[in-house]
Amino acid sequence: MFGAIAGSYDLNNRLHAFGRDQAWRRRLIRILGVGASDRVLDVACGTGDLAEAAARVGAVKVLGVDFTPEMLDVARRKAKRGADRGHWPEGALVYEQGDAMALDQEAAAHDVVTIAFGIRNVADPAKALAEFHRVLSPGGRLGILEFSEPRNGILRWFNGFYTRRIMPLTATLIARDRSGAYRYLPRSVQTFLDPQGLASLLREAGFNVEAQIPLTFGTCTATIATKPS
What is the pLDDT of residue 170? Predict the structure, then answer.
C-alpha cells in the first residue's frame, strides 16, 4: 500500500497539510536539540523528510529505516540531491530497509530516535517502543510526531470533516491510487491512541515522558521522551 503511493507521497503531504508537515518536523528537531555530536535514527522514515531535517542541523550521522523499498528509493534520490547541493556531507545521511519492531541496530547505538506519523502504522507499537529504548544510549531522546484531535470543538469538527471526507478523495486522485491507502490513513488516526495513551505506553516501555506539545491548534502532537541515564 505505501509502495503504491511513494511517488506522490511528498506532494500529497505538502498539499494536504498546507506545508505544515515540514514545519512540524523542523520543530521536533529543534525541541530535541539535535546537534553535531548526535547519532540519529529515524524510524518509519518514508521519503526521508524528518531524517533530512536532522541532517540539515549537522547531526554527525543520520540513519533512516523504513519497511517499504519504494519509499526508500525516493529518500535515497533526495539524499543524493541534498549532498550534491551541500546541505549535508556525503554519507552523513543513509537509508536501510528495516522493521520498527526488530531493528538491526546494536543496543545504545543512537543518541536520538525519531518517528513521524509512523508509530500508528506499526502492528505492535509497544514492541517498537521497546526497540527504541534498546537502541538509545542512556540519556538518549525520543521524538514522536503523530496526528491528534484539536480540543476546540469547532476545530475538531472541521479537522475531522477535512481528514475523513475531503483529503481521502483529493489525495487518491492525485496519487491515482487503487490500494486504498488514503482511506486507510484517516482511519488509522481515529483508531490509534490519543497523546495520553501514547504517554502511558512510553512509560510502560521504560521512558520518561518529558513533554507533549500540541502543534497547529492540536492537529498534531510532538511527544518527547528520554531513556533514563
Answer: 81
Residue of 26, 61, 50, 31 lying closest to 141 (CA atoms): 31
Between CA 134 and CA 46 the distance in angstroms is 22
Q: What residue type is assigned to position 94 of the chain?
A: V
Q: How far apart are CA 81 and CA 64, in angstroms?
A: 16
For the chain, the DSSP string reads -TGGGGGGHHHHHHHHTTTHHHHHHHHHHHHHT--TT-EEEEET-TTSHHHHHHHHTT-SEEEEEES-HHHHHHHHHHHHHHHHTTSS-TTSEEEEE-BTTB--SPTT-EEEEEEES-GGGSS-HHHHHHHHHHHEEEEEEEEEEEE---SSHHHHHHHHHIIIIIHHHHHHHHHT--S-HHHHHHHHHHHSPPHHHHHHHHHHTT-EEEEEEEETTTTEEEEEEE---
The grid cell for 71 is 519509499
Q: Return the C-alpha cell found at 209.
A: 515522558
- Kindly tell me the burial class for residue 229, based on how many C-beta atoms sit within 10 Å of its own C-beta (0-12, 13-18, 19 or more): exposed
Rounded Cα distance, 79 and 55, in Å: 10
Q: What kind of architecture, by CATH, is found in domain 3-226?
A: 3-Layer(aba) Sandwich (3.40)
Q: What is the pLDDT of residue 13?
A: 77
Q: Where are the domains of the chain?
A: 3-226
Placement of cell 521519503 in the chain: 47
Its pTM stands at 0.91
Residues 105-139 have pLDDT tens digits of 999 999 999 999 999 999 999 999 999 999 999 99
